[in-house]
Task: structure prediction
Amino acid sequence: MKSSDYALGEASSNHITNTQVSGNKFHDGFQRQFSYLRLSITDVCNYRCNYCLPEGYQCDEQYDNLTLEEIQTLAQVFAQHGTRKIRITGGEPVIRKDLTDIIRVVKSTPGIEDVALTTNGYKLEDKVESWFDAGLDGLNLSIDSLDPRVFQTITGHNRLKDILRGLDKAICLGFKRIKVNAVLLKSYNLQEFDTFLHWLQHMPISLRFIELMQTGDNGDYFRQNHVSGETIKQRLLAQGWQLKKKGPLAGPAQEFEHPDYLGSMGLIMPYSKDFCDSCNRLRISSSGKLHTCLFGDGGYDLRSLIRNNHQADIAHEIQQQLLDKKASHYLQQGYSGSTRHLAMLGG
Ligand code: SAM
Result:
């Protein structure tokens, strides 16, 4: 395929038919297809979450983030190979001044049907309307505690009230979906389990409990704070939550609903058996490295191809790398690859 085959130009519609992408969807050796990209646009984060960056962001390399044009190139390549959803993440993506332009460019890429953002809620109230207007479909907001003091202890910031105001504004705007992520931590917020559920009774959101993952930097913290996702699942089932049937394109979260609650629940249980069977996501770091697994042995550098807009070569390299993707991560064995913390890649 020639690079010119990818030159999409100013198309008026995002619709690419399945026949256009069938046969060249990114896939691995285990019949998994990849329709979802997590794109990190910076690895800088302004928070000091004690399970992720307890000392705050440490600048060990000159940062050289993907530019808006490079992001457009990537979005086009991925869309041409079956990607329908792009989640923008970081570090903290809101730190980038051109975030609204990035959302607009990604959303206007033919083939990309869904653009989401993962954020800690920084400047949410100020900016959320411009993101919505730029075409953002989904918002994932990290809120690890509903108690301002616990929130500050975990994140290093006293911003819970501002974030909740931003969340209310986001709800009024009418996003396709809003998810709130909370990592459950034995010594910090596990006792808020019922408070979180109570909150969900009247909140039109999906709450995600994420099982704490071990990374290169947080071994001791992990051993002290890890709560098994299975325990949480049993608690939910005992309280009348029902597991929803998974659709064919569903990701790894287990989804629950309850007739008395406006909101729904999702559990991300990376330590559960078969978690990776439904893996449908690829990751690109803010410096343009491809990661075929969150806990792999490092990224594959695509930057010079991206910089030069060599779209066919980018696609070829991605597909080649995918053929080496393993069936599963080895988190259960305590192996987290080269991932020191999740701010490196955005989770
Ligand atoms: N700064 C943004 C945010 O806070 O949402 C995006 C990046 S952050 C790395 C993405 C998500 O990863 C957050 O919900 C965060 O709580 C989660 N996370 C970070 N480290 C984690 C770990 N070791 N285990 C589980 N989740 C983690």
Notes: The first strand starts at residue 36 and ends at 40. The radius of gyration is 19 Å. Residues 45, 51-52, 89-90, 92, 118-120, 142, 181, 183, 210, 212-213, 215, 218, 342-343, 346-347 surround S-adenosylmethionine (CB under 6 Å). DSSP finds eleven helices and twelve strands in the chain.
